[in-house]
């Protein structure tokens, strides 16, 4: 349904988008005479949704197979706060989501040309929500705006007004004197700080399937306990490529990228923090933080390097012990003292419990868990240990035996984010898979470093 929703957003008609996941595949496997349609005489295989099925986040309230309901009302209620019977009493009919607006090529090129100019001027109307309340770089007068109809004025590349249209009238008049001012009239516009992305490959490789277009992959067989063997993404980063443009379109202004580790491994290396803008290089501020975190794996991929996950846990403890001892003046020393965060890729809740024990034994270490498919099972312990999570799947599916207890979310369980939030766990959200999204977004719920 997600892909059907994406197709509809890009102007695939509503009926065709729905047919792409119902009648068309049914006919393709020669079963169109009994499934794929809601018709008399056909199998009663039906799904009842809480919203239009092409809408982002639409969730089944009930699933029927051969006319038999598959979901228990009590479980659905606990996970979603409503049930099929309650939702069916509503009179409003579901409405298909809006399609993306498409401009004519000439208008789009003209708009992009104007907006890319340095110190451009903008007037943006129709903003209904602002999420700049705690943004440190915004003047207090702009952070504290209230109401439901804002105008944003940008002059010479800086925000000069964010307020009601009446209060911004003088700022609008000043920038409107410039013939190159760009005016945008939005419908239900939102303004928020630029997103920071945790990525798998942005700036490290241009084409994921062609190794020659990037820095190369970390050797998983190297001794990860030797600080001399660490790979640093800052030495291989390149600030160009199509993925950078896609990242900016998605609202991403900064990205964090570790060294490539296509084959997996225990120690992945040191990530780098980069800007996604095109007017910066490695010599003039394109890297906002040369060393962001040490990335390691306590999951199935660690077996490539060390054979077993238990060995990976033991070696990680050795890294931290040596960081306080013979390697205290190396990167491992910075990790052991908490100066450099330690990002641990883990999903299995038993592995996460091992990480919590590590935090107890090494309280100075700034641990962040990446993955967290089963983190809700130990949410209270994570909150007590003050270990934040970067969720790489908000609705995880058990893709392997060791991930069989993944908390899949509504309608079978409460959402992962809800469980973590209610337990007091700080978390962010990311999608770190090259095939899914090279500009993998991180939506910060709380600052984690």
TrEMBL record:
Positions of the Amidohydrolase-related domain: 11-58
InterPro entries: Amidohydro-rel, Metal-dep_hydrolase_composite
Gene Ontology terms, MF aspect: hydrolase activity, acting on carbon-nitrogen (but not peptide) bonds
Name of the protein in question: Amidohydrolase-related domain-containing protein
């Amino acid at each position: 349904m997600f892909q059907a929703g994406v197709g509809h957003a890009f102007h695939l008609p509503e009926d065709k988008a729905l047919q792409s996941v119902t009648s068309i595949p049914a006919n393709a496997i020669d079963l169109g005479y009994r499934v794929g349609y809601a018709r008399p005489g056909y199998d009663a295989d039906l799904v009842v949704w809480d919203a239009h099925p092409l809408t982002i986040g639409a969730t089944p309230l009930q699933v029927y197979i051969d006319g038999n309901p598959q979901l228990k009302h009590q479980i659905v209620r606990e996970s979603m706060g409503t049930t099929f019977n309650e939702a069916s009493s509503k009179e409003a009919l579901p409405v298909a989501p809006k399609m993306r607006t498409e401009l004519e090529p000439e208008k789009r090129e003209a708009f992009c040309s104007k907006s890319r100019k340095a110190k451009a001027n903008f007037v943006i109307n129709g903003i209904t929500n602002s999420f700049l309340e705690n943004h440190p770089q915004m003047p207090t007068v702009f952070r504290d705006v209230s109401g439901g109809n804002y105008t944003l004025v940008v002059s010479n590349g800086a925000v000069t007004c964010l307020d009601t249209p009446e209060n911004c009238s003088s700022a609008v008049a000043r920038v409107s004197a410039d013939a190159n001012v760009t005016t945008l009239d939005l419908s239900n516009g939102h303004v928020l700080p630029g997103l920071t992305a945790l990525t798998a490959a942005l700036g490290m490789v241009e084409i994921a399937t062609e190794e020659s277009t990037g820095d190369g992959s970390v050797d998983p067989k190297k001794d990860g306990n030797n600080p001399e063997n660490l790979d640093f993404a800052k030495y291989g980063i390149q600030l160009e490529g199509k993925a950078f443009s896609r990242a900016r379109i998605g609202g991403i202004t900064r990205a964090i990228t570790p060294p490539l580790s296509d084959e997996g491994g225990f120690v992945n290396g040191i990530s780098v923090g980069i800007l996604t803008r095109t007017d910066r290089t490695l010599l003039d501020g394109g890297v906002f933080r040369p060393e962001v975190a040490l990335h390691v794996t306590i999951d199935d991929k660690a077996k490539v390097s060390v054979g077993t996950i238990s060995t990976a846990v033991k070696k990680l403890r050795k890294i931290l012990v040596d960081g306080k001892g013979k390697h205290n003046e190396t990167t491992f020393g910075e990790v052991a003292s908490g100066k450099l965060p330690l990002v641990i890729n883990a999903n299995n809740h038993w592995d996460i419990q091992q990480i919590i024990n590590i935090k107890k034994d090494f309280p100075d270490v700034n641990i962040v868990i990446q993955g967290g498919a089963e983190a809700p099972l130990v949410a209270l312990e994570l909150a007590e240990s003050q270990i934040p999570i970067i969720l790489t799947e908000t609705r995880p599916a058990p893709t392997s035996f060791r991930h069989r207890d993944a908390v899949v979310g509504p309608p079978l369980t409460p959402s992962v984010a809800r469980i973590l939030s209610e337990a007091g766990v700080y978390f962010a959200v990311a999608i770190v898979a090259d095939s899914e999204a090279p500009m993998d977004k991180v939506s910060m719920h709380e600052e984690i470093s």
